[in-house]
Amino acid sequence: MIRTIAPADRARLEQGLKRLKLRRIREMLDAVSELALQEEPSYLDFLAYLVEAEVQAREATQRDKRLKAARFPMLRTLDSFDFAFQTSVSAQTIRDLATLQFVEAHESLVLLGPPGVGKSHLAIGLGIEAINRGYRVLFLTVQDLVQELYSTLADGSTTQKLKAILAHDLIILDELGYLKMDATASDYLFQLVAKAYERRSLIVTSNLEFQEWGSLFDSPATAAAVLDRLLHHAHVITLKGESYRMRSRLAPPKVHGTLPEGSAAPALRAGGRGEGGTPT
């Protein structure tokens, strides 16, 4: 039974909001009270407004927590990817992947290409899209993955560590190809790929073509087993072209001021760019 509504006691109201953990409503209490006096909404509209503000605040908090837990080395969005510079992948292809149907279907994505062509940028951008949709994401370089799993040998917690990694919906493994793995490291990577198969989504970036992966593992058989599971339900994108970082670094400096009469301006490399844009 609903009792008679009594005049509000401010201190008691704030205490109740605190107990219910309605932080956003408590923070905006004065502002929303003033707004209600001005607009005179119905009680239902006023309640809906407060609830929506609280829901949005909690979603933003959870997103920030997921973003921090993802361990991205830097933040890169798909909107900041320079498709005019990196023309070997179409914007439509990336927009299709950004629907995250591949994550929902537990498929994988493999990004191949030399250093500096945008593989990590795309991987991080898709990871941030996944976080915005409520998915749990983890970013690891292959070297970090191997080192973290090696550290579990001391206390025998390898199984627990793999389980913690596989608790994420999307796992990004960056820079496969820079580290030749021994038998233990090869087994770690195989275990992760095998356990993720048809259960979790992986994004893997590599500077090596698939036929070169045999040189990374302790045996060609392990490489074949990893590829068999990774590529069964996978999207593969091969990026080509110049390294963005090297292109920016090697571009001649701009010339300021006027040139002496008869002098010619030094030739500038076409398409030179400044800071920002597409990284590895």
TrEMBL record:
InterPro entries: AAA+_ATPase (IPR003593), DNAC/IstB-like (IPR028350), IstB (IPR047661), IstB_ATP-bd (IPR002611), P-loop_NTPase (IPR027417)
Chain residue ranges for the region called Disordered: 252-280
Gly residues: compositionally biased ranges: 271-280
Alphabetized Pfam families for the sequence: IstB_IS21
Keywords annotated in UniProt: ATP-binding, Nucleotide-binding
Positions of the AAA+ ATPase domain: 105-238
Family the UniProt entry places it in: Belongs to the IS21/IS1162 putative ATP-binding protein family.
NCBIfam families hit by this protein: IS21_help_AAA
Name of the protein: IS21-like element helper ATPase IstB
Species the sequence originates in: Geochorda subterranea
